[in-house]
Amino acid sequence: MAKWNMPYKSENTMKRNIYCLISLAMAMFAIGASAQLQVRMDKDSPMRKLQLAEMLVTNFYVDSVDENKLVEDAIRGMLDKLDPHSSYTTPKETKQMNESLQGNFDGIGVQFNMVEDTLLVIQTIAKGPSQKAGIVAGDRIVAVNDTAISGVKMPRDQIMMRLRGPKGTMVKLSVVRREVADTLTFNVKRDKIPVKSLDASYIIRPGVGYIRIGSFGATTYDEFMTAVNKLKAAGMKDLILDLQDNGGGYLQAAVKIANEFLPKDDIIVYANGLKSSRMDYRANGSGKLLDGKVVVLVNEFTASASEIVSGAMQDNDRGMVVGRRTFGKGLVQRLFDMPDGSMIRLTIAHYYTPTGRCIQKPYKKGDQKDYAMELDKRLKHGELMNADSIHFADSLKFYTLRKHRLVYGGGGIMPDYFVPLDTMTYTKYHRQLVAKGMVTDAVLRFIDNNRKSLKRKYTDFSKFEAGYQVPESLIADIRERGEKKDVKPKDDEELKLTLPRLANQVKALVARDIWDMDEYFQIVNETSDIVKKGLETIEKM
Q: Which of 63, 357, 413, 516 makes an SS bond possible with 326, Cβ 3.0 to 4.6 Å?
C-alpha cells in the first residue's frame, strides 16, 4: 500500500486548506444564521471528504489546476443533482443577474441592435447620459475609448462591458452619423440607467386598461402603480393584465401587485418546505384595484412570480385567467451570498396557491434534460393546440374559495379559458425570417433611411395606426434577404398566410422606433388570439 509522504510545504498547504474550510464554515454561519446551519467536521463528515479531495487534486495532480474552478465545478455538481432551479453563479454572473432585477445599472443609456457587425442606436434613454451628450437614434457607435467595436465581430457581451462602467466615469465614443462625412466624437459621463420591467400600458378599449409586465423586479410595483394611475385618469374601470412570457423575478413585487386586487386577509400565496415552516402571504386590504373586472393573460412561458399572481387571482375568484397552462415553477429559493461575490440559489420550499395547489410541476432530481424538454413534450402531446389533450387525475381537482369553481393542480396554472397555440398564424417561413434576423435588419435599415420623413408625416400615433401602410418594397427587401440565406416559402399558400402577419409585425417595429413599446403592443395585440380572447372574456364577466 502506498504511503503519503507529505513534504513540509504540503503540510502547510493542508493546514491552510483546513483553515480556509473552517473560515468558510464560519462565513456560512454568518450568512444564514437563521437557517441554523449544521457543519460536521468529524472524520466521516462529507465536508471533510470534499476538502480532502480538493487538497489531493491540488497537491498531487499531474498538471496545474485552477483551485477556484475546481471548487465552483464541485458546487455545480452538487446542485445539479437536486432540483432544476438550485444553482450557482460566479461573481460576474451574479452581478449581471442582479442588474436586470434591481431596476438600474451604470452605463451610457442607449437601446441598440447589432446590424451587420455594427452597433446601431435605436433609442436613447430620456434624460440619460447619451441623450445629454448629443447622441441620437440612428447613430452608429464604431469605437469605445479608441477600441474598434465595428467590423471586428466583437461579442455582444464584450461590447456591453466596454459601454458600461461605474457612475461618474467617462467613456469616449466614436460615432458615424448619416449625412455627416467625419466620424464624430462624444465624451459620455456614465450614470445610473433605469431598467423597466413594465413593457406597456394603454387603454385597449373604452373603459378597459391593458398592462403588460415583462418581469418582476425591484421597481415593478412602482411602475405598475404609475401605469394604474395613468389609466384610471384616462377612464379605466376594468383591466387586462398581460403576464405572457413573464419568467418571474422578485416575490415581493408579485405579492404587492396581487395585494392591489384582493380584499383584506385573502391569501396570495404560501410557502412550505421540509425544513422551513409554512409562511402565508396575505392581502392587507389597502389595494386600489379592489373593484372592476380583471383578466390575466398567460402562456407556457409564464413562470414563478407571475404564476403566483395568476393563481391568487384565480383561486380567490378575483379575475379570470386566459391563455395556456403556465410553466410550473413554484420552488422557493433562498439566495446565499458568498464572500467572493458569487451566489448559491438554493431551493428551500414550494409555493402553493390559496387553494393548496403546488405551482411547481413534477421533476426528476438530477435530470435537467428531461425538465428542459417538458414544454416540447406538451407540444408533441397536443396540449398547446387542443384543450381535449389535457387530462387531470381526480386527485388534482381543487375548488376556488368563493365561487367553488373547478380548477386543477399538477403544476402551473391552468387557465379558465384555453387559447390554443396557432401554428398556422406564424408560418415556418415567417418564423425562419425572424429567427435569422431578416425582419429586424431590414426594418432597421428602412427606419434609418426614413425616420425624419416618417416623423414629419405622422405627428401622432393615432394617425400612424390608422393610415400607415407598410411599403411593398420593404416586404420585398425582407424576402430577398431570406432568399439569400435560403429561407423561402414552401408554396404560394404559405406565402399568402405569411404576408399579413409579417406586415403587421413590421408596422409594429416601425411604431416602436418612432414612439415606444406602448405603441408596439397596440399594433401587435390587435392580431393576438390571447388578447382577443381576453377582451371577449372581460365583456362577458
A: 413
Is 538 within 8 Å of 238 (Cβ atoms)?
Answer: yes
pLDDT single digits (tens) 134-181: 887 778 899 999 888 888 878 777 888 888 888 899 999 998 886 677
Does the pTM of the predicted model rise above 0.90?
no
- Same domain? 122 vs 186: yes
Grid cell for residue 482:
431570406
Does residue 119 belong to any structural domain of this protein? yes
Q: Indicate if the pLDDT at residue 338 is higher than 80.
A: yes
What domain range includes position 110?
A: 104-194
Same domain? For 190 and 202 the reply is no
* 315 is known as an active-site residue: yes
Domain CATH for 165: 2.30.42.10
**Block residue for cell numbers 418581469:** 215
CB proximity list for 13: less than 8 A, separation 6 or greater: 55, 58, 59
* Confidence band, pLDDT 50/70/90 cuts, at residue 208: very high
442 within some domain: yes
Please check whether residues 432 and 411 belong to one and the same domain: no
Instruction: Tell me the C-alpha distance between 494 and 499, whole Å.
Output: 9
Which of 174, 197, 201, 304 is labelled catalytic? 304
**Inside any domain, residue 528:** yes
pLDDT tens string 238-274: 999 999 989 888 899 999 999 999 999 999 999 999 8
Scan for cell 398556422, then name that residue. 424
Total domains, the chain: 4
Are 308 and 380 members of one domain? yes
How far is the C-alpha of 54 from the C-alpha of 63, rounded, in Å? 14
Rg (CA), the chain: 27
Is 304 one of the catalytic residues?
yes
| Catalytic choice (83, 87, 242, 329) | 329
